[in-house]
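Minutes, methods subgroup
Present: GH (chair), OT, SY

1. OT presented the first of two proteins processed in the latest run. Sequence and structure tokens recorded below as shown on screen.
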Amino acid sequence: MSPKKRQNDSETGKKNKKEKRGELAVINSDMRDQAVQKCMTDAWQRKESYSNGNIHLDCEPFPHCQITHFLQNESFVESLRAELLQLNFNSKSNDLYKFQQSDDLRERKEHHVSQIRSVIFGEFREWLSEVLQVDLEATVDMSCAKYEYTDVLLCHDDELEGRRVAFILYLVPPWDVNDGGTLDLFSTDEHCQPVTVVKSLLPCWNSLVFFEVSPISFHQVAEVLSEEKCRLSLSGWFHGPSLPRPSRYIEPPVPRHTHIPRDESLLFEWVNEMYLDPRYQARVQQEFEDNSEICLPSFLQEEKLRQVRSALQSSEIQWERRGRPNKRCYGCAVMQSFPTCVQECWELLSSEPFFILLSNLTGLSLHYLCINEDESEDGKSETENRDGEENTQAGGSSADVDASSAEKKDKGPPTCVGELRRWAHGDYTLLHDCVKREYALDLQLHMGCAGWKSEFGGFTSYIAHDEDEELLTVYPEDNSLALVYRDKDTLKFIKHINNNSSSHLSSQNTTAFYDFSFNYYE
């Protein structure tokens, strides 16, 4: 081969290598500037803000940073997005979120995925370790998330063992605040509990956000409101030594009360007469004992229902937001502002005659006049043992029965706790570990939700503790009384009400539906 030919081949090879290198994931050179690193380190440590070119770091409400134009090569970013969209996505939905997620990207062999993985957990991790002065591990923890219309990730802090810094690389089309899907950051109170959104970061093409995972790093992905756009991102965590965590905050319990004395005539004024028939009550009780739940349609008399429904939409009632956003978000009525008919309905559900009615409908012992058969048998056995009619072995059983009876005595009389709630777009409750787990009868009496559909959210989901399996779903149904007996290993949440509900509520000339929510304890 002639020297000239070899020279041409050599130059062509160099050119091809340069082109190949151009397709690699290369981090924006601004990040590697030592002055930038020092300023960011100082800002992070002093809890200040710092901006320089395409880097903005802010330590309020908690340390976080947004880097625009994270990768230099736009064609690589485009190819990466196309490659990610070809992945297999799994729909994920529970109390906290609804979105689509890819499989773990730790072992994926696709060219652009493996390149971005190497860059983020290699060069970028080393740079970040130096900036934050934290020894971040090379452990790969990354996946791809796809948020479409009505998808959401509610308030949480990201804390799991080993997570130190979270990151999100956005691969979105031109995005506007009206599209939703912002990364919302929460302020916290003296108990390290989230209070309200104080900053919202808009997803931006080829931008990377990272923040320190800590006891106060509460954030959420706001509901996506665009029906055309897809909020695609790569996200994950750098692992390292966890920050100290304060002791868990336990909310003060809501006071419970025993039944209030009212005349039996209250039932005949308010409740559908069908449910006051002893024979019908017996059939309801049998079904409830078989299933531990039942829904009783048309529960209130029509005239009373009409009065309460009208009063609930009046401006007379004062509504307060029930939060903390990592546990719940909905409107709760102030009792002192109840109109007369709403107050009467509340008293109905708290009254002695209603405790007796619930006992007859469920077989539970919510009144001393309504002792279930098991307790009667225990009582008989205890009496027989005291009379010396049992043998010595049964004498041991007598001690157990005495202990059981003493426990029931210590529990005191049946009690209840309740609230009147308003449910609108964006409202929800979440599972959390601060709830006292105990046996209870849950009651929900829905109003103003005619024509409600499951795809709107707003339904109550019961699940087994530490399991994802759904045991029961209670859907909002106008003037239907839902009764569910919940044991110690059963938890519940109300699914986030999404934007699909807005047009339906508007067609009903309202912005919300309502429920009386009570818990009764034997």
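2. SY then presented the second protein from the same run.
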Amino acid sequence: MLSRLGALLQEAVGAREPSIDLLQAFVEHWKGITHYYIESTDESTPAKKTDIPWRLKQMLDILVYEEQQQAAAGEAGPCLEYLLQHKILETLCTLGKAEYPPGMRQQVFQFFSKVLAQVQHPLLHYLSVHRPVQGKKIVGRKKACGEPTALPKDTTSHGDKDCSHDGAPARPQLDGESCGAQALNSHMPAETEELDGGTTESNLITSLLGLCQSKKSRVALKAQENLLLLVSMASPAAATYLVQSSACCPAIVRHLCQLYRSMPVFLDPADIATLEGISWRLPSAPSDEASFPGKEALAAFLGWFDYCDHLITEAHTVVADALAKAVAENFFVETLQPQLLHVSEQSILTSTALLTAMLRQLRSPALLREAVAFLLGTDRQPEAPGDNPHTLYAHLIGHCDHLSDEISITTLRLFEELLQKPHEGIIHSLVLRNLEGRPYVAWGSPEPESYEDTLDLEEDPYFTDSFLDSGFQTPAKPRLAPATSYDGKTAVTEIVNSFLCLVPEEAKTSAFLEETGYDTYVHDAYGLFQECSSRVASWGWPLTPTPLDPHEPERPFFEGHFLRVLFDRMSRILDQPYSLNLQVTSVLSRLALFPHPHIHEYLLDPYISLAPGCRSLFSVLVRVIGDLMQRIQRVPQFPGKLLLVRKQLTGQAPGEQLDHQTLLQGVVVLEEFCKELAAIAFVKFPPHDPRQNVSPAPEGQV
């Protein structure tokens, strides 16, 4: 019995010995650091050449190992308790601020970040951790040396050695409050005071913000990584403090605004596009790209914006929302908006292209929400022709129809990028709010007896007798009323053929060249439709159009300012530059891909009976074809010139200038756009539930 008891006691002692050894080792390493400041006489030796980095690493390893050996999760071990009770982090914070020995600040930053990252026990709610990591510097509230401070218990007897006779610090005190606090502030980075807005705060957060601007890319990257780590691990209390009582968010946005103002007044949109994929981890401009004035400044700005986006994505919700609002108020509204509203074409071009590049990088939901409100406003009611929309939104719509084709193209690219962001409010504000209730459908109109009745060709001024005699043939005449599917929608074959046959044969040239045909458009449209359906899957859209309610008061239909400018531009496709036509049709194709039944019906169903005074995408195209057939008669050798222009556009013929070149290029775009719309209609029908997987890609023509 006694031998058994002795064995048990031996096991118990053996189980406790590692804990005792760990604490002793931890204290010894901390004593080694404190004794360095007492015994060292060489103030020029870099920290990395002393034993301080090694001892800090040993202390970190002990903390991590101790936690792994803890039987009860969530309990602090003896070593961690010692670190907290003796305010070791506060002492290290003071040593780092003093930058003694040289390079000590970097050692402290590394130790802090590794402790917070590798120790799983919650730490930030402890005052002795929160104060050096997140809290304000107490120096501003105390007189220098006014309150005595103490060293750890084993070294307090040496405390009087740390102040010289004249009150200036010979070496920093080993405590959060040194008698030479003002002198320690002089060791902080110059950037800290600039970022801090002139306040006396000089904690770890503001120090990291200062180092984020270091001209040494490696130092800046490490500081950004550590700041990202800190804001992502913040507790609710620490996050609230960071937002309400620190200069973190304003400083980050202030630096963004400074980088924006440091760029040249004018940057070519094509140059901006070369750097759109830049990352905050690699903010320098790629060396293989062509150089242009302002390239490095542009790269620095886009890199910092990407970093802001990552901070908002990873940070605690409280910090993320505050930082997103700060970016919106101080950068979007106060800095960027005046450039977007400027009368100078150069300012409009540069700011719009930069905004497009930023949208392409943007990933955080909080910042996207602020960007959408900034660009489109928050009104969700249907638009009216004479209303006064959100100021910036109205200007951007006007820029889509600007006298400068370059401004129109750049602004249309902005909207195309916006349509690809995962935010339901975008498509609702631009299109869906005006299609609610389907006011574009004629009330009580009978089902059309034929395809031609739907088009009302006889009432269209473009379709006169002389025009019909000129050779234009309505597609597939005569045709019975379109077949319908189980839900009353027009069959896909009828819709596809309506678009494919819309352009008359004498205006088609793709068949004469070995080019990609309708099949390729189907393949591309299928991939884009899958991507779009995945993006909107969580938005809860219906699968079929809303039934018309006879009890609802009839309201006049207005397609909205965005569709109106697109339809107006589409109606002028025969008179606009080729690049502008490509951008207009690209935006309309993006819209047509959305799997909402009202969008599908309004943009892709040629057979809907439109309410009086309404126009749809198909009716706009019909009028363009009517105009084309009249103008063909005035162009000598039209088929040959049209084929030559297509060859020029595909690089198969030299680009010599021809008469009616704008018209001929517009005809080529028109033919390709009709094929693209037919392909989109094909992959969308029968309507797919956006919450389900899309069926395998179709092959071949209809």
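Chair's summary of item 2: The mean pLDDT is 80.
Next meeting: continue with the remaining queue.
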